[in-house]
Amino acid sequence: MDIDWGWIGDHTDTLTEHALLHLRLALLPVLFGLLISLPLGVLCRRWGWLYPPALTIANVLYAIPSLALFMIFIQYTGLTPSTVMIPLTLYSLSVLVPNVVDGLASVSEPVRQAATAMGFGPLRRLMRVELPIAVPVVMAGTRVAAVSSISLVAVGQLIGQGGLGEDIIRGYQLQFQTQIVAATVLIILLALVTDTILVTVQRLLTPWARARGASS
Fold first, then answer.
1. Which member of 89, 150, 181, 183 lies 3.0 to 4.6 Å from 32 by CB, making a disulfide possible if both were Cys?
2. What is the 3-state secondary structure (H, E, C) of the chain?
3. How far apart are CA 138 and CA 84, in angstroms?
4. pTM of the entire structure?
5. Under a CB-based contact definition with an 8 Å cutoff, are residues 121 and 135 in contact?
6. Residue 18 CB neighbour total at 10 angstroms
């Protein structure tokens, strides 16, 4: 495979612009998914009967092909970034909701009782005790959702909103492998960098885990 390094050098600005757009289209849905999944997961944990239907709906939405969802939303949001980000937000729920529920379930009952005995009300206990302990499980789901979203964004180019997907489609149309390879490598790098950043964020949010690792 011959790579035209000169072409890559001449199009660095364009590739960078497409990569930044790709990140925005991919990561905003994960953020929106977290904003939905955190309160929903808390409710599912409090009222167990809510979890099965919530998870079923999330899984059914995930089973719908992305292009089909794009076609559904395009009738309402047109050829805009929202047409890509809304389906990706819905897809993220199938990963994030169960991880939030599992994360909260990982908090042992003695820990909850100890927090209550210290005078923590339900909201304060949730914010200061339960959610911090749930961080590793929630972040594990967030990492999966983020990497998956970065991959799926490229499909959005079929409706004109795909970030680096534009270079993949354009390279295929022109039979120009350099453009395809450059865009594909950048997508992989975006996924790796994003995952590394999320791991770092998790470590910052769980200093006790670092201390435990240092003492062992």
1. 89
2. CCCCHHHHHHCHHHHHHHHHHHHHHHHHHHHHHHHHHHHHHHHHHHCHHHHHHHHHHHHHHHHCCHHHHHHHHHHHHCCCHHHHHHHHHHHHHHHHHHHHHHHHHCCCHHHHHHHHHCCCCHHHHHHHHHHHHHHHHHHHHHHHHHHHHHHHHHHHHHHCCCCCHHHHHHHHHHCCHHHHHHHHHHHHHHHHHHHHHHHHHHHHHCHHHHHHHHHC
3. 24
4. 0.89
5. no
6. 21
Closest CA to 185 of 160, 154, 157, 155: 154
Tell me if 167 sits within 8 A of 95, measured CB to CB: no
Tokens standing for 11?
């199009």
- Reading the block at residue 167, the tokens are 């270079």
Q: Which amino acid is at 159?
A: I
Q: Which residues contact 150 (CB under 8 A, 6 or more apart)?
A: 22, 23, 26, 27, 187, 190, 191, 194
